[in-house]
Amino acid sequence: MVESLGRRDPDGALFGTLMLANVWRVIWPNQKIVIASAVAAATGGQANPAAAAAGRRAFLASRTNVVFSVPMLFFMGAATHMPPNPITHLMGTGSACSSWPR
């Protein structure tokens, strides 16, 4: 039985979904706090003391997204560019054996 080519794609989609949730639930709300604090300070108002912690949390979540992007791209690329099952593919169930030198 040959494994489906699309088997690795849900893994990449999971990483992409986690990255999207990370942006919408962590990074963007914390960035809004930092931006509002910077605007308040620039216009002569009081800076928000929670802005430093919010900026740090957004920074760490953004760094996590950078780390998640490598396996996400690998799994999404592997779904279309790798053979379905490398062992059976080389043993004759795939088209690669027809191109081997005789």
Q: Secondary structure elements and their pairing?
A:
Blueprint: H1 9-42, H2 51-81, H3 86-93
Helix pairs in contact: 1-2
In short:
This protein has 102 residues and is mainly α. 72% of the residues lie in helices and 0% in strands. The protein has one domain.
Key phrases:
102 residues; 0% strand; mainly alpha; 72% helix; single chain
What does this structure look like?
With 102 residues, this protein is mainly alpha-helical. The protein has one domain (5-80). The protein contains 3 helices and no strands. It has helices at residues 9-42, 51-81, 86-93. Helix 1 packs antiparallel against helix 2 (51-81).
Total strands: the figure is 0
Distance between the termini: 26 Å
Radius of gyration: 23 Å
Helix/strand order, N-terminal first: HHH
Number of helices: 3
Largest sheet: none
Shape: rod-shaped
Strand pairing plus helix content: what structural class?
mainly alpha
Mean pLDDT: 81
Q: What is the number of domains?
A: 1
Q: Please give the share of residues in helix.
A: over 70%
| Percent of sequence in beta strands | under 5%
Given as residue ranges, the uncertain stretches (5+ residues, pLDDT < 50) are none
